[in-house]
Amino acid sequence: VCLPPLTTSMWRAAGVSYLRYSNEMAAILRQCLKDPYRDQAVQRSVTHMVEKTWSNGAVQSKVLIDDVSKGFEVARSGAAAAEGKK
Q: Could you write out the three-class secondary structure of 8-48?
């Protein structure tokens, strides 16, 4: 029996971006490691981002983002607000 090749990537089949898929898979892999290695890997995966809103050359607001999933939510809400202004 000859099967057709898989043409859909795993991340596309999951319905997410490649970046989000790779982050999720990396988190799963880090959780599978044994204790001394898991702790080191989890510490390396910590993300710290700051989103700044500027107006008239000054920072109006800062949002500290410690979690990648929170960063995705902030990005979605910002995109929705930008669509609402149009």
A: CCHHHHHCCCHHHHHHHHHHHHHHHCCHHHHHHHHHHCCCC
